Every structure is written in C-alpha cells, then in structure tokens.
Amino acid sequence: MPPRPIRMKNFRRNNLLTHNLKRGTCLALLVWLWAVPAWAQLELVPIIPPAGESVQTTGSTKQSARTQALRLPVFDDFSTSNTFPDPTLWMPGSGVYINNVLTTTHPSINIATFDGLNAAGVPYNFVNEQAQGDTDTLTTQPIDLGGLTAADSVYLSFYWQARGLGELPDDVDTFRLEFLNQKGDWISVWKQSGAVFDTLYKHTFIPVRDASYLHAGFRFRFRGHGRSSGAFDSWHLDYIYLNRNRSINDRFIKDVAVRQPLTSFLKRYTAMPLDQYWLNPAAETADSIRTDIVNLFNNFNFTSYTFTIRDQLTGREIQRYQEPLSVFIGPGQTQKKAVRLTPIARQSGVERLRLKLKFDLLTTDDQNPTIPSVNLRRNDTISTITELADYYAYDDGSAEFGVRMNQRLGRTVVRFVLNRPDTLGGVRMALVPFRRNQTGQAFTIQVWNSSNGRPDRVVHQQSVRASYGTTRNGYVDFPFANGVAVTDTFYVGWLQIGEDPLTVGFDRNSQLGASQLYTNLSNEWAGNLDLKGSVMIRPYVGGKDDGLITGSEPLPALQVRVYPNPTSGTIQWDSDLIRQIEVYSAQGIPVRVIVPSDGVREASLSHLPEGMYVLRITDGQRTAVQKLVIRK
After folding, report:
1. What's the whole-model pTM score?
2. pLDDT for the residue 4
C-alpha cells in the first residue's frame, strides 16, 4: 500500500521523523526503501522562490495616477487584470496573485489568491520555516462615502474560497476583512478560520452602516494570516461589489461570464514541434476545445459565441466558428461549451505557428446593467496560446506546486512519443525552489530510450547546475553539447544526486502528462499512480545530429556480483567492465567513489564503520544497485 499523503505544511515535521528513522536500524530502513513503490517517492511541495528576488509591482504611472477618491459603485472581478490587481482600484504591494488556475468554481474568469508569498512569489519570511503572521493584504484606494448614512444601505459583497488547488489553511489561520474608520484605525468586521473546505465559493454580504466608516477616505482591505514562509494557507477572492441601496437579498447580478481555461488545441500535448505535428495533423489535433460559462443572474438569458484561431506571427485567421443560434441558459446555471477543431494543413515555408485560440461569449450584459457604469461584457472573453514551434510540453505554463524526488539516486522521467525520428537539442525546465535557494547545485539530465513501454537505457546524460527563470513560471534552457538522436519514444528527466531534492514546477491543471511520468529508485521503473498533473519539463528538437540513432537494440541489464557480502572491509567484483562504484551510507550520504583501473576487480572499504551501505555500479551505460553489509 502507498504511504498516506503528507500535508504540505507538515513537511518539516515529517523530515524530522525521517531523520529519526534514519538513526535507527539501517537494515529496517533499507528494507523500507526497497519495499515502497518508486512512484511514492515523488512528493508535491509548495512553491517557494529564492531569497533576493525583486518584488514586481504594477506600473508606477497608473499607481500615481489616482488623485481623487473612488466613487460608488466599486466593482472588481479581476477579469481585466493580469498577475497584479488593477492599480486604479487597489493599492500597490498587495502580494496577491491574479490567476485563473488555482480554483475551478469561481464566479468569472480570474481570481485573487492570498498565501504566504509576496507579489514576486518570494516568502514573507525566508528564515523561519514555521513563521506565522499576516501575509497578503489587498487594500482599496480611498473611496468617498462622505455624506452617506445608514439609511443609504451600503453593502459590500464578495465571493471567497479556502484552498482551491492550493494548500488548506489550518484552524489557526484566518482570512479577514477590515474597514478603515474616520480616525484612521483598521477595524475587523469579518473573519473566517481555516480547516473548512468547500469546492464551491461562498457569497458573503457585509453592511457598511457605522457612521465612522461613512467618510470621504474610506477603505477596506482583505488580509490573510497564516504561515508566511511559502505558498501555504491559500485563500481565494472574487467578484467584489460595493454600492448603496443594496440589501442582503441583493445577491444576483445580470452577468453571464466565462470561467474555465480553454483546453488544449492538441490531443496529446499542450505544445509540440511543428514538423512533428504536420506529419499527422488529424491525429494530433484535439477533437474539440472546451470551456464553461455561468449565469450569475436569477433569471434566464440567451447567449451565443464566436470562436477563432489566429496565428499571432502572421495575423492569419486559421479557423472561425459562429454559434448559429442563441442558446438558453437558466438562472444560476453552468453550461459547458465545446467547439470542434479543424486540423491545420501543411504550409510550405512556415517553420512556426503561435496560435491564439479565443472564445468570445456574446451576451447582453451591457444592456440595462445591474451595476451602474460597469460593463460586464468585460468577463465574456477567454483565450489561450498554443505553440507549434520546436518543443514538446504537457503543461500550461503555470506551476501551482513543485514536485521533487525525495530519494538520493532516484530517477524521474517523462515520456514523449514522436511521429518520426528526430534530434533533441536540449531541455527546458521550470525549476522552483523549496525551502532554500539551490542555484548552482548539480544534478544530471538524462535521456532514455524505450523498450516494452518502459525506459530501457540511458542514451544521453550530462551534469548541469540548477538555476531559476527570471520571471514567475520561467523556464531555463539546458542545451545538449551534441544532438541526441531519438526514435519513436523517448524519456527525459533527471537523476537526483545533490544534498537537497531538486524541485521542478508541477502544473495541476493539465492532466496530459500524468500518465507519462515514471520514477526509479533502484532497477525497476514504476508509472505514476498518484500525482494528478504534469511536470514542467520541455525537450526541444533542432540539435545537430551526431549520427547515432538511439532506438536500436537495447543493451542487456548490467550483471555484476560484489562479494563477499557481508565483508570485513575488502570487496571484489566479477566483471572487467566496471568503470565506477559509488558507495552511499544508509542515510544516502556519499562516502566513497571507486574508479578501478583496467583489470582491477577489488577495493578496500576497511576505513568505513560497520553498517549497511548502498553500491551504485556502472559500466558507463548501464547501472546496477546493490546492498552491502560491512561487519568487522
């Protein structure tokens, strides 16, 4: 049975437990290591970017442009924002992340996510992993409520949700709403504790009646309180509306909105090389592209939509579809929408396509609006980009979490299937730090060929140094020294060799790569059975072919015997092919590297204390792992 999933906030406690186990019986630990399925050693962790990263803010021109207080109504559903809140409505430096990927049931496109990361994705406290405190704070620009009274019935409404696709807040964590009174004091008027999860958003109404709030410089703010050392304790906020002449029953707004991200144009990938696509466009193109819409009003409506695909590089329209008739949508109803896709025929001279897929919902939200002066056609359009260039991808470019191999010498790979042999030029990876900056730490990129549906042998590997992208969700290019020829199926991944597990971005929205993930702790590969999502690793083609086709007959497994076992200190082996033997303690710490000379078949380990050790033996192309007991 796989181990029980570990709550991400408890990683420090679980690591201490692992440390204590490692101080116990070495034999018991090694039995456990070999007994647990390989896929169980991949774990999801919150994204914690490195210290020293500069905080990004919205443009200074817009931030300084507001000289007068906002007037009612005040509304924001974040549909017009990208990454950062609208500076004409909100104060800069909030730390919230505007996105459309961290929840699935939000009222309209885009939400504001609160967690323990600032605007640049850097932890508020990067020193103490258990630090608790106030985290993201979203504060309005001044709002003029001067001259109003309780009789004007001013209400603030909003939608909120805990966790979503993020980390569930504990019962000691809170999400608060505060009002700024006339004295300049922030007063808490609403608070939600953690450990309560619902897949649906909750709609909350707060009256603004107290005379101390009805002044010309009123503000309100939302603030998270929880673990401030990373992407912990996630809260999500949407559809904020402040106005007079409202009541707690004023729960419906005439608005039909788009919501879910568009699915992939491709059937197997989110991106692929154009030449590979054109070998079989019909098989590579998804049958349809999908999203959903929601009616937020308490009355029915009729909608239609337009769908277009346009190449952004040339401006050429590739596909257009207009829904011929308006379709009924009931009050509060959600509808799924799907458009059949047309494969793109080969075009001579075209080397790259950058497709913008756009779904434009046609509504009457701008006619007789529920919210005066607010055009709710603003949330009727959603789009996505599909690259047909030089690389393969299963992810959508957004890392909700990181994934790491938590066993030294463990291997993690992702499978890709070609339409014809090609040559890899390198790999792009979205590395995301966890706990500390790993810049410069060594790891090994590996390319494997395939046999019987599993990785078979390494056809290329090279040692590289970890680094991080210059932007959020940024990729780093690791080019190969020489082109690596691959045939129909290959695997790309990494060998964990450093002190700390390497953490790679993990996209929880795209499931295309979930079944393509494999891990290996010793000599047996296991497919992913647990993690739902795609590892953010992108092999690219275009390398200079070195003339070697890597899909030839597989090499037999490395057969070697190390003896005596147990040993008092000297070991021998029965093969002249051995090029290196790495010796690791039961705790996974390297203690010796043996590089035998030609014809030498023995070495001394007499300097090592008694105990259990792990030998990683290689002939340069194949690897075997064995256990060894030293008993003096």
Report:
1. 0.76
2. 31
